[in-house]
Amino acid sequence: MSNNTAHEEPELVQLLTPEGVFTEHPDYPLDIDPEELRGLYRDLVMVRRVDTEAVALQRQGELGLWASLLGQEAAQIGSGRALRPDDMAFPSYREHGVAWCRGIEPRELLGMFRGVTNGGWDPAEHGFHLYTIVIGSQALHATGYAMGVQRDGSVGEDGAAVIAYFGDGATSQGDTNEAFNFAAVNHAPVVFFCQNNQWAISEPLERQSRVPLYKRAAGFGFPGVRVDGNDVLACLAVTRAALNSAREGQGPTLIEAFTYRMGAHTTNDDPSRYRVSAELEEWERKDPIQRLRTYLEKEGIADEAFFAEVEADADKLGERVRHECRTMSDPDPLDIFNEVYAEPNVHIDRQRAEFADYLASFEDSGAEGGR
Amino acid sequence: MSTKLTIGKGINAGLRRAMEADPKVLIMGEDVGKLGGVFRVTDGLHKDFGADRVIDTPLAESGIIGTAIGLALRGYRPVCEIQFDGFFFPATNQTFTQLAKMHRRAAGKVKLPVVIRIPYGGGIGAVEHHSESPEAYFAHTAGLRVITVANAVDSYWMIQQAIASDDPVVFFEPKRRYYEKAEVDTEAPLHTATPMGSARIARPGADATLLAYGPMVKTALQAAEADTDHSIEVIDLRSLAPVDYDTVVESVKRTGRLIVTHEAPLTSGLGAEIAARVTEACFYHLESPVIRVAAFDTPYPQSRLEEHYLPDLDRVLDGVDRAFAF
């Protein structure tokens, strides 16, 4: 019965082909210098290394779970580098590349997956909200935040814009659709950035949608665009244009970054049960890092020494990530009671005191020879 | 200046004062604008503060709470109106997984001063989903403060206290009591009002403690008045999370008996929690078990039967009698 309408041949905005050939796009001109191009390459390599290390650390029992970004580096670095300091991003739980662009230390991400924190960083300081695990919830937070930006009068060329990240699965959630509608009727300065990685755990795109996802935007009354999510330059150009449109008062845009989750959904998942290896091989040929490298080499923008230096830096980063993960200390047991409320709460305070006494009783019994 | 206000007008006046005091205070919800809400609680605010501060939202409860969270992250203090108790449920995810947890998730680095106003409870002859008492769901969720009012003095002050709080506050409004009147000194400073976390002894007594909140406070006071054989102390709980156990326990230690009444169903209701706590704290002072007088463990019935479903004066008095039978 399936006629795969959601899978219809994509009309993608693409600047860099899988073979590393650059073509200008009439609607999305990209003003970028060699230094920035090399920077993008470095970002891609670094976040892939963080991801590789994290998967390994999970296998070694150092992390409880990890959600790999393998294959989605270009979508995240391209969109993440389009953000300005005053912009605000609302991520899902796989946006390690965007986090990198916002100056979040890899250890902060690891801390959450290790179970040391539930969040870690200061969202306001980084313009990067905490990872949101319940699918699609953050699309509404982003929209509300954008309504706040409007009310602050922070619009115009120097204004702020907001971006919400989610996956193809989230487009099935009511919250995401409510966010589209709230953003549309309020003309809110928000960009919805959907990384369509083709799979919501084991469910393929045709189980999520009968229409290409970017076309959903039209039903809500704002533009939708599909970009090659493995093309970092196209992701940068399209996101920059959408953010500028938002900050200048043109309202929301939905960007569908057409990409592929090359790894498992999380380290608990086994994709071999639901997808065929030929699919993976097809997408490996579209690898976001290799295509930029080919372009940089062909155009003489970067030489062997540069690539070797990036590789060495990635090795150093990997070592740091491993060390920082393994040396993270567990939180104090009484942290359970911290920051449940912003204001004093006698009920929590009493439970904390009782539990502290209970814990202390073991110390006493230890002094007396244990029990 | 002392003015006679209904509970509904008290909330309206409190909202107005909070909006005048702080430009970051916003009202949002369905029909809260020109209509002034289906109960007219936001009447006149749209006219005086404009559509940017009194926001008519699309009809989507999750959207209301979810965007309120975003607005709060940007520094605003949104007051969300959920039109009726039974319509809250689409917003449970945003409230329970996001609003309640985010302060802790962020290790205190973000604050979410969001107020959710919910007209609740029965007794108005409404159709399905318009008469429920869902407060126990909220009281069970760490990170939320849950309060309810029983008179216009509290409605005027507690809505302002809820807005001033840096924690998310769920503010339950007893819809069948919206038109109850009281004298309110509307010009006293906010800090002189009774703190919203505390219970209030609504009527002193010596023989038994009758605990109620929201719509049942009036019924409890009538019951205490009607029982001429005993001296009944009535406590208006006011704060459902956290509960002011100091006031409750102190009262029960004096009277030796406790009867708890609420409109919500009996099982796993707030009364069960209070009974357990008071038993633990007052075991040697109790002359009888803690008695609960609540609604039945059924869906809220069709309105022609609600007078049987809701605890009324007779059922509360029956509960008091049961306590004295021990």
From TrEMBL, chain A:
Its cofactor is thiamine diphosphate. GO terms for molecular function: magnesium ion binding; oxidoreductase activity, acting on the aldehyde or oxo group of donors, disulfide as acceptor. Residues 44-316 form the Dehydrogenase E1 component domain. InterPro entries: Alpha-ketoacid_DH_E1_comp, DH_E1, PdhA/BkdA, THDP-binding. It comes from the Bacteria. One of its GO terms (biological process) is branched-chain amino acid catabolic process. Coiled coil: none annotated. Keywords: Oxidoreductase, Pyruvate, Thiamine pyrophosphate. It holds the Pfam family E1_dh. This is Pyruvate dehydrogenase (Acetyl-transferring) E1 component subunit alpha. It comes from Nocardiopsis gilva YIM 90087.
UniProtKB/TrEMBL annotation, chain B:
GO terms for molecular function: branched-chain 2-oxo acid dehydrogenase activity; magnesium ion binding. The keyword Oxidoreductase applies. The keyword Oxidoreductase applies. Its EC number is 1.2.4.4. Keywords: Oxidoreductase. Residues 5-180 form the Transketolase-like pyrimidine-binding domain. InterPro entries: THDP-binding, Transketo_C/PFOR_II, Transketolase-like_Pyr-bd, Transketolase_C. This is 3-methyl-2-oxobutanoate dehydrogenase (2-methylpropanoyl-transferring).
